[in-house]
Amino acid sequence: MRRVVITGLGSWNAFGAGVPAFLAALRGGACAIGPMTLFPTDGFRTHRAAVAPAPPAVLPSGATEARLSRSDRMALAAAREAWLGSGIADSGLREDRIGVAVGGTTGGMLEAEELLRRRRGGELARMPARGLVAMPVAATADVVAAAFGCAGLRLTAVTACSSSANSLGLAADFIQDGRADAMLAGGTDAHCKMTYGGFNALQALDPDVCLPFDRRRRGLSLGEGAAMFVLEEESHARRRGADIVAEFGGYGMSADAHHMTAPDPEGRGAVLAMRRALVEAGIEPAAVGYVNAHGTGTPQNDPIETRAIKTVFGDHARRLAVSSTKSQIGHCLGAAGAIEILATVLALRHGFLPPTVNLEEPDPECDLDYVPRSAREQRVRVALSNSYGFGGNNTSVVLRAAS
């Protein structure tokens, strides 16, 4: 089987622009959760979120900034960083051998909401078509492909909060199957009133900041952002002398088939996703040194994920480091998988473990090593990242340090 490696990284989230800013914040134990500044939150139960800076316009040929959503612009900024960092443009690959795979959930909903507000308020006589073309979730993959001349396979994954983890897994499949030599893959999601109002209505948000694995936890904190990667067939990457950042070892998917929003109480789907990822990667559980948990900070998720990790790893679970990046940048929904995979790749590459920053009073049901409060300098060779979404959409990804 063809091996898949990562040769480019790109980031845009509440810690700012670019991978260096994300790395510094992860290592420094920062928390980006603060006031929601994108729209008024009057009448909502909560008023906080992790908000990214306004992304620049990276315009595909023939496009205008007015036709790009906030989700598009974050993805394009992250994709440009990954693209330039990988050197793939000078690799000699044909354009039709480079594909695009993007995960997300809301697309241009923020812009559509603003148009609807203006139309209902009498500011617009009609809904302008150019303001709606960026609304579909699939629009981001289109603009990313156009911006970088990727004429190969194109995919949009929409599986709730596991969307971008699945986009990376499917991109790796295309390379392993020989249908692509490289893929520009990842995820993006921007805040919008629909999402913010929906999670408020579910009473799933913490009024202050999320506290994964802490007995005081009351819910998640919403975030936004994008992470993009260049995935490449290993032998091609080595022939051209590319800097291999990490290896995409394998991934596993499963469905709880249980409830629209609640996880399976026994964590059966989570267990299956982790086991499938380990089998595909050819990795024994004892070889894993770090798990980037889904770790939402909701009352249900954290103990269920803890039990699932214990089931998969057995006695080794007591020697594992486990942490939640969501304690630092919130839950970035469709982009969460890609952003947390990026955090995991950076941990492998730079020899540290991201912290669970707000963990002060551990829940007795959550009794693993969650790297509380501050990052830890520690090298691991193999890591696993979990992404679980509404509807019971579970994905786990295994990553190896570059050799």
List the main descriptive attributes of the protein structure presented here.
2 domains, alpha/beta, Peroxisomal Thiolase, Chain A, domain 1, two-stranded antiparallel sheet, 403 residues
Textual characterization of the structure:
Strand 14 (382-389) and strand 15 (393-401) form a beta hairpin. The protein has helices spanning 19-28, 70-86, 109-120, 139-148, 163-176, 193-201, 234-239, 268-281, 301-313, 326-329, 336-350; strands at 4-13, 16-17, 33-35, 48-50, 98-103, 154-157, 182-189, 225-233, 246-255, 290-292, 321-323, 352-353, 376-377, 382-389, 393-401. The protein has 403 residues and is of the alpha/beta class. It has two domains: 4-239, Peroxisomal Thiolase, Chain A, domain 1 (3-Layer(aba) Sandwich); 250-401, 3-Layer(aba) Sandwich (Peroxisomal Thiolase, Chain A, domain 1). Strands 1, 2, 5, 6, 7, 8, 9, 10, 11, 14 and 15 form an eleven-stranded mixed beta sheet that branches. The protein has a two-stranded antiparallel sheet with strand order 3-4. The chain has a two-stranded antiparallel ribbon with strand order 12-13.
